[in-house]
Records
---
Amino acid sequence: MTQLPLRAQLASALGRTAATLSRATGRGDGSVIGGRIGLALEPDLLSQLARDRRLALVSATNGKTTTTRLITSALQELGDVATNAFGANMPAGHVSALASAKDAPYGVLEVDEKYLPAVIDATGAGVIALMNLSRDQMDRAGEIWLLAQKWRRALAGKNTHVIANADDPLVAWGASTAARVTWVAAGQPWKEDSWCCPECGGPLDRKGVDYTPPGGHVAGAAPLAMVPRPVEDDWACRECSFRRPQPSWFLDDDAVIDPRGQRWVLDLQLPGRANRANAAIALATAEAFGLPVQAALPRLREVRSVAGRYTTVERDGRRARLLLAKNPAGWLEAFDVLDRSLPVILSVNAQGPDGRDTSWLWDVDYRVLRGRPVFVTGERMLDLALRLDVANVPFQLVASFEQALAAQPPGKVDVIANYTAFQQIRAEFDRAV
Amino acid sequence: MQSDSILRLVWIYPDLLSTYGDQGNVLILEQRAQRRGIPVQTIHVRSADPVPESGDIYLIGGGEDRPQILAAERLRRDGGLNRAVARGATLLAVCAGYQIMGSTFGGEEGQPVQGIGLLDIASGRGAGRAVGELAGEADPALGIPMLTGFENHMGVTRLGPGVRPLARTAVGTGNGDGTEGCYAGKTVGTYLHGPALARNPGLADLLLTWAVGAQLPPIDDSWYDRLRQERLTAVLPQQA
């Protein structure tokens, strides 16, 4: 459907060829090399490939890949969707994703937080979903307040519909310059990066009150008349007027309440609170494309694992569920998913993509692991060993993931690994998806 | 210790300066005191609250430019930390917190921002960011082994005659002139960011010794030692 100028057509075709070669030769999944070649030949290629499509961009510190997958799954109800499903979230990956689905009328692109302003400019995307911002790989990613400020500048004056998490003060600040924002109360368990007002630096006052819905939960998609809104996790600056915007969508325990007050039990296959929050954002984003919850939610329920996340791999009767956690907020959400009755294997590396600095281990509260068998491995196992020792969490050090798995009795075990440690485990199991 | 029963740790402004696992230093001091039978009370002071003057060891960590400027303003207005140090309290200041202890430091655009003057140092912004492993021989007068850690900052710090360098750098940037950090009295400043004490239990014990006013019995340091050895082996030039 996209009519590209000749030069762009050529750039796009050569890029696809390179991607095919990359896959055929086993050098990669082809999602970056093809885009790089295309962009080198035609710097404007991303803009041209984005033209005449309805695009959603998805950005956050955590949950980008999963939320991209959830929104893609929903929009497939409407038609073909171009997407960078394997997390190649910089412009080369976007070019590759759009070029390989030239006729798809829809696109859902995961975008690295730092690249978001450039990708907004290049694509003119009509919808942008923003979930959370927290400390992450500070040795190379830089400062998140500055990042939010760049989001503000990029969104100001654009005709874009932003779907944003009202419970994360830094996201609320970063999104609030947009012409139109749909606010979602998606929660924020990790609060250590938002005790101060992003607008003026004053203290943020927070109140979180547990909400118990009256009566039981109604299964499936059956709407409830006038469900009272949850008393939410409110916040406001003590010194200036910046405060939590009024949400129209709410994550309410295992359900989402839509702007009409209807409560939808999510019943996802993906585990954990973080994925329910991602689903709330995905449902609001789908509605921005005209897709009602009733049609979108069954699609979200079909998603079982995302690029290896939450998948279960098996060896010699040991079934290991793989959880990815790259930073303190991610570990907090991963702990929420753990089965309390199971042993857990933790694997930590500090290669380039992980951040070479392991300081963040000290921001994770590992005490929740007390009382279950804990196995520690990975290239930086000693950093984690000392951290657990100081937290009084008993553990066993194991030389490799294979040995950790072999040390388990047959049955289930949970695994939490950071980025390259996770990819190493996936590689062991033929890039499990 | 002020009170002869409890060691009081005061963590200053975790809401502003706690970006790189700075909590680690608090946890390590707690652990190393408790394993010697010293009861510990830890006080987290948010930036809207006054800094209590009755603490034994004060800790302040690292953070982004804007929180650093806010922290310096609030500490200056509050005055509690200056009074506590004048009274003889021990202080560990890390990275952004280290720079705040001087006369000036570089703000968001490199503009000079006034510090709180607890150390005779002045900092500015360097040309590039110093990111990576840092190792250096500690000042022999301190009697502690080689320092090891990670740095991530743009600061260049000039030491005045009122302080001594904490270490001579073997790997990494530190203050920018071949030295790393500094100390004066019972105040230590360092660019070893975040959980600096995790790889330097000797420095942790030095702070505890200053605060308690007595030598401490040894404890099991095997996890600390293994981590130190691994990191030093990884970053120091190989010796034959």
---
Amino acid sequence: MKRFIGFITKEFYHIFRDTRSLFILFGMPIAQVMLFGFAITNEINNVNIAVLDKSKDATTQEIINKITASTYFSNKQFITNEAEIESAFKKGNIKAVLVFEKDFSEKLIKENKATVQIITDATDPNTANTVNNYVSSILQKYQQETNKNIKPIYQIVPQSRMIYNPELKSVFMFVPGVMTIILMLVSAMMTSISITREKELGTMEILLVSPIKPFQVIIGKVVPYIFLSIINAIVIVLLSIFIFKMPVQGSLFLLAAQSILFIINALSLGILISTISETQQTAMMVSLMGLMLPVILLSGFIFPISSMPVPLQIISHVIPAKWFIIILKGIMLKGVGITILWKETLILVAMTVFFIVLSIKKYKIRLE
Amino acid sequence: MSILIKHISKSFKDVTALKDISFNVNEGELFGLIGPDGAGKTTLFRILTTLLIADEGTAFVANYDVVKNYKDIRNHVGYMPGRFSLYQDLTVEENLTFFATIFGTTIEENYDLIKDIYVQIEPFKNRRAGDLSGGMKQKLALSCALIHKPKVLFLDEPTTGVDPVSRKEFWEMLKRLQQKGITILVSTPYMDEAALCDRIALIQDGQILQIDTPKEIVKHYPKTIYDIAASNMYELILSLNEYQYNHSVYPFGEFVHYTDKRDDFNPEDLLKFLKNKGLKNIIIQLTKATIEDTFMELAR
């Protein structure tokens, strides 16, 4: 036991004396959560639009007011003819142009029909689509309001309700993903690097020729990072609760327990990586390519798994992050408990045991 | 018998590192393994310290089999690898404490063993190991290898890259450790250090050339050696190489060590030859063979 404590003390010296990795360790989570929370977002806010109003009557004025009154759009400029549309887009600060046809009100009354053209800048397809939808829905609402007194022949009214994230805040979707990435990165990459560093610097040679047992070395390497990862998880959850007003519907205790389970899973992956790589460089590359990319692309964090081709869906099953994200979303947004999440938890436990057994088997007690 | 090596062979892919090595090291002996880089010294050390498994042969260290009883060996030997292998970001004291702890002991418990060495680095005990000079690093590494009072000490090229004064001090320390009953196997590429060992094994290309005490090894040298000097060393070596009766020509400090093929060699003949070559201030004198000469002769 004394040996073990001595080993852990040494590990903490390594971590706290390496200011660069310490910075990565604690700076990265905060930076990532902020980035994903504020900058990378699917919502639209204050999109600049331009208006080409050929009729300039009461109705068009009212519609323009309605649109610019929302927080989504702000009217940047009025255009006087069609030729200016192109140059307005090319300047780049306009995302959409609304074109009202001539004699808008008149046509509406006489022919019961008038057209508004929505031209969007589709270099960014997501935004273009969203802008289009938002403008269309504002127009529809306006139409309904003005037609209140006239009884239509028949009408289907969709009543949609968004649950769990009624304001469609994308930060709610990103927080579980970012938390997964960071725990994976800190736990797996940092441990694999710290074990391969011993190999690279030759200290592993001395450790091998000493009475310290392989499992003591492995656990001694892992314990400090469990602590650091738990601190990271707490920081991320606090940031998301206090800055992004993200609710935690389920039990905090379950959230903590599941996070620790995932941390241990990632750590065991890190140990596995260190047993197959000889240098810190390889360990880092394997961690980045082998862990980060699947976590970002195949875990359902950014791209929904259900819309992936079948082979990728199958691959996604073996990615621990996928199950952890399901668990996180379940606990934080839906407030479900272990009775619902037992299957995902069991999968994570099984994966962890598998990785640990494999890495102890692969851990070399000699140099070759 | 402290170390017993029987017919050890080891290859890496297509390179044979050790070929049928056998020798013994007695208890309390300071045994030197002398050979150039790539001779197989490190591989042999790694086999004896249980880090590698030999392809053929058996070996025992402190009466433990290096394969079957590897755990016992790891408790009872001290190992100092050729490359500086301590934690550079830990201080001198932290390194020593760490190694004491993992061997289940404390600095205080075995302080008398490392005292002579440690007092020299104690003034720097709060300095990080990475900031120490070469000689200091070696002293720290030796302290760490000794802290658990090992029965057998393995030192793989401990003085490579260390200044001459520190090298001398280091060997004095080894002598003192030997008096405390520790068996020491040390490897070195420096022939002058070989003379300080009780017995030495000359090793090249994975084969033992000869094993004996340094004095006996030199005695076995079959030829008469002459020190030759001239005002132009480069011209001298060229000329000696041209001389049809030369057996060996090796630069050795300020002289060239020369041996002749003939048994009835007369230095006057050579003097004449060299004078004809236009060399000046020629000195030819008899000298004693060194371990280096023996090694060169055996390695031919």
